[in-house]
Amino acid sequence: MTGTLKKIKLLNPEFPNKATGVINGKASGILNWNDIAYPQMYRMYQTLLANFWKAQEINMQDDIKQWDHLSSIEKDVFLRVNTQLASLDSLQTPTMTQVMDYVTDPSFKAIFAVIAQQEAVHNESYSYILSSLIPLSEQIERFNQAKDDPIVRKRNQIILIAYENFRQEPTPQHLFQLAVQSINLEGIYFYAGFAFFYHLARQQKMLKTSTMISYIQRDEMQHAYFIAQFIRILLTENPELNTPENIQYVYHSISEAVELEKEWARYILKEIEGINLEEFEGYVEYLANKRFRQLGLENHYSGRDNPMPWIHVFSDEMMNETKSDFFEQKSRTYTKVTESNGFDEL
User: What is the annotated signal peptide range for this record (predicted)?
Assistant: First the structure.
């Protein structure tokens, strides 16, 4: 399947309501959650909705009082990480919205819409934190710093290439690559920044910020999981995409993101006492192995255990009562999901 995807018409009355494929399928455009091709997606939708939150729900007064007691290094890293995370989330809302135009299945469209909205909330939350702590002039300066930082631009580049390729030429192959890079953004790239905020929290510093970050992480965890399932379904329904070259693309792309996250951590966390960078690098590899397993692939890095014990209290597993094994099937093949094998088998 090498052709360009066509934008889906809003309404196709001659087609069934239950979509015949996630892309290049037939669907009326009318969404009946009780009659969808992948019933487990209703649970995914409900899980995302249950996460709903707004930045303004978190009172920043305690953090405002603590801000002046942070060291100059902590303040600088805090602001750099904040705006770097915002620069990544800024890409997600328009990208997820664009993907909706080419996905046939209306249940998937609905989930992409929720993800796009949540990414907009994340983006706002970073601005909300900054507005509580520093004047607008410094906020603008810090956002420009993130935009111009060569390491940030290098990190963003692999994401941007895939996103722009799909924007310019929306083919199934480019959609697959976009989805893989979205997993990198949601499931690999944020965690050095998260680690910094959680490191402050374990010292009882900036706890309101860490609470907001935990909400963001909970969302991103679900987004990465959904995109992994989307990829598995895409490859199942379109076996011409399920090639050794594309599986190698997954391994290469996620491994590249791991190295870029390590590079960023060495750059941004090098002067933060109490964060062992070797432990953190192992932690990123641990996260990457989780992403591979969510895609039904084998671990790429040795070891399955989290080598950064203190961060476990802030880990994905602690954010969600669902056992990690529920998300991490190790099958080597992509099995089409039906009601008989269900969500747990995906």
Answer: none
